[in-house]
Amino acid sequence: MTAAIAPHPALRTRLTELFGIDYPIVATGMGYVSDARLTAAASAAGGLGIIGGGLMSYQELAEAVAAVKSLTDRPFGVNVRANQPDVERRIDLLIRSGVKVASFALAPRQDLIARCKDGGLVVVPSVGAVRHAEKVQAWGADAVVVQGAEGGGHTGVVPTSLLLPQVAGAVDITVIGAGGFFDGRGLVAALAYGAAGIAMGTRFLLTTESPVAQAVKELYLTKKVTDTVVTSEIDGVPQRLLNAGQAGGLQAASAPRRAARAIRGALLFHRLSGTSWPDMIREGIAMKREHALRWTQVIMAANAPVLYRSVLLDGRTDIGVSASGQVVGLIDDIPSCRELVDRIVGEANDVLARLGGQR
Questions:
Q1: pLDDT tens digit string along 163-208?
Q2: Cα separation, 79 vs 359, whole angstroms
Q3: What gap in Å lies between CA 323 and CA 234, rounded to an integer?
Q4: Could you give all domains of the chain from N- to C-terminal order, each with its CATH number?
Q5: How far apart are CA 237 and CA 257, in angstroms?
Q6: Strand intervals (E) in the chain
Q7: Are residues 325 and 255 in contact, defined by beta-carbon separation less than 8 angstroms?
Q8: Residue 43, exposed/middle/buried by CB under 10 A (0-12, 13-18, 19+)?
Q9: At 9, is the secondary structure helix, strand, or coil?
Q10: Fewer Cβ atoms within 10 Å of its own Cβ: the N or the C terminal residue of the chain?
């Protein structure tokens, strides 16, 4: 499908060329959210959809990739967790299937980047600091998603307005801004900061194609920009959550209660996902080494998938947690992906025309 709206020339960027898409807009690969339907819809709308493969089994990922290909012929990506025991096998699946982009929530190993590039994948890690962007550039990454503190999920402390121009000035690869974006004004601002486009999570979570329970979507719409909390109690790494359900009680819970809850969650995730105990242990060891976590934090991390699934898919806001950027307070509707992308591009066109003195 061709672009529904003719973009301003400034919206033809290194990002649109690198990915082969119409507009410099990326729907991030969110666990339990970015399924085949949402990914295909974002790509069909002219952006780049990314399957949230980090919490999928290998078979689930293979089925999701096949489903996206059956729904659209547009480029799409897959988010891969570099510390998964079968990560090489997953990368090979992407290569065989003709997937365009391999994205990584955290910086992958140098050998994984080389494996992706040898197979023709475009490699896009997410970073939260200049040094991380410089490292993955040296290792051969094609682009980086630069997420500021406003973003949902794992995040740093530097706001997008400072981190984005800092990284854009330090590396030569394609830079994509994330954290706080939801409209055409933000897209133009990101371009002004030196990015080649934007990536959005919370905004695409709140679309009609998103699999998130309707009641949870409506809960998001009631929140203000101050209704999120940053905590390390999920997996030992800071992440921003919607201040609802279990999020408020995580900090107050005693260590024994948190550990008991984590063990129950790990048992449930083992049953739901089919992930073997040896694989879960290997992932835990890799996480402990990579993030210098305590074993108690590793045990908590095993609980995270169940906490997210409980809210996002089951609608149990009372017992789970949900990632959210601060931008949630600026979102007031649930459009389709096509409506959202067209709106953002139209707004960006208007802003660019006004800045150029054309109106």
A1: 999 999 999 999 999 999 999 999 999 999 999 999 999 999 999 9
A2: 41
A3: 11
A4: 9-213+332-355 (3.20.20.70), 224-312 (no CATH)
A5: 19
A6: 25-27, 48-52, 76-80, 101-104, 122-127, 143-147, 153-154, 174-178, 198-200, 228-231, 239-242
A7: no
A8: buried
A9: helix
A10: C
**pTM passes above 0.70:** yes
DSSP at 98: T
Placement of tokens 């059956």 in the chain: 70
Pairwise CA distance, residues 52 & 323, whole Å: 14
Q: How many CB atoms lie within 10 A of CB 92?
A: 14
pLDDT for 270 equals 45
Whole-number Å distance between alpha carbons of 105 and 201: 12
pLDDT tens digit string along 202-243? 999 999 999 999 989 999 999 999 999 898 777 667 888 888
Q: Taking Cα atoms as reference points, which of 161, 123, 162 lies closest to residue 145? A: 123
Residue whose tokens read 């109690």: 233
What is the greatest pairwise CA distance in the chain? 63
275 forms bridges with which residues in the sheet? Answer: none
